[in-house]
Fold each of these.
Amino acid sequence: MQPVSVVGRGGSATLEREVRIPPLGLQGTLKQPAGAKALIVFAHGSGSSRFSPRNLQVAKGLHDRHIATLLFDLLLPEEEDDRKNVFDIKLLGQRLLDAVDWITELPDAAGLPIGLFGASTGAAAALVAASARGERVGAVVSRGGRPDLAGSALPHVKAPTLLIVGGADYGVIELNQWALKRLGGEKKIEIVPDATHLFPEPGALEAVIELAAAWFERHLFESESPGSNSAKQSKQ
């Protein structure tokens, strides 16, 4: 598919194109607003896809803040029928690693600092990928995630990590608090009052967008390359 220019807030143009992530050819959508200062790779949750309406809304909010996004399907169509694959964090993490490795070599995006945004089980995949690509991943945000499923990878995550949880998402809050204690590097948890797991309440997803955007801006906008955030921290 040829790139399509979409006019966003304030009249700025966003370049949109459909892509295939090697080596399996996973389908994705890459959107780059004019003057993008960073790029966020999304990892959707179980039973979802790159068309997740909540992730699309978050991505739109990031575009308005000069942040590019890559949303892609973590599984091939024939793999989605096997429910075990949906919860195979090692498999999903590897797919995310493939996407990070690919995007960092893409000529028009290679110089952008990279962050990861994971939802539900995708949050665990994002943390597994971050633990393996510490020099390339500058920040991670989890929305209603299951970071606990990243298990032994948690202490090896050095990228600044923000866990966003709904205040009424009982059980998941405790799992995020458990994971927070085990995460390496800078970390923080934000509770969105009265929100449930999918953040459908009025203003809840907007709060997620504001928190995520602020985290990425703080940790990625001053980076000169995908690994410069780590270098900056090592000097402190």
Note: The radius of gyration is 16 Å.
Amino acid sequence: MLAFLTRRLATILPTLLFVTILIFGLQQLLPGDAAKVLAGEDQDPTVVEYLRKKMHLDEPFPVRYAYWLGGVLRGDLGESLRMQKPVTALIAEKLPVTIELAALAIVIALAIGIPAGIVSAIAKGTWWDYAANAVALWGLSTPNFWLGIMLILLFSVQLGWLPASGYVSPFEDLKANLAAMIMPAFVLGNAIAAVLMRHTRSAMLQVMSSDYVRTARAKGLDERVVILKHGLRNALTPIITLGALELGTLLSGAVLTEQVFTIPGFGKLIVDAVFNRDYAVVQGVVLFTATAYILLNLLADIAYFLVNPRLRDGYARA
């Protein structure tokens, strides 16, 4: 296990360095002058010059990158000149909202997608299989913003069961929080569940036709044990990969869904920052989400290691 983690960490650190160069470099390609945008309509030359110095825009690219990277290594992602707050404080403010939304969406996706994929694979060619595939196709084809609007019209406008938009902290009112988050979480989880269902079905079909599954059945094991212990466990590898990637996508901010339901998460933060040329916020949020992707992939690799005995044996021999 230690050798496995050491090899993975040895690839993560250069990757993170390359990501920082890419984020900072691409940021410089944005059109317009950030200092003039932040100076307002008057664009007073004194203010513009002050902003250029404050943001190190008067320095060459390597110097600006060194300033920024040095701050990142100290845990300082800069300050939002538009909101006059540290970027780390903004991330800490929006992160719990995004994490809650992502967690609820993943739970919904797993609860729908994996059982549907198992049933579809086991009942291949039956109406259960056709129904599960039809639902998956619907989930893949339905735009999130349209589904969100339809849910608002049904559950908020027509039935009055749920609030149409807004966010309430779970520490203030847990019931109101769940009522506000269930619809956006379902919208996001619906699309992910469709993808999970297709991957689970494909992996289960491949595994259930393998020799060790036939051997388990020949031994007289209960079909449920064969499916869950011998089938699903060995089919988890692609599902773990997909789950980690989808969770990373959710943590980066579901822009349209957050806009429809007025959820103050990462999506709204990054959109506002891009439009306002708030470079520090854009760089900080993108760096955080890129790091989250890399760490989630590391967790997925660790999960492979724990689930797949052959991988453990291979590293033990190495």
Note: The chain has a mean pLDDT of 80.
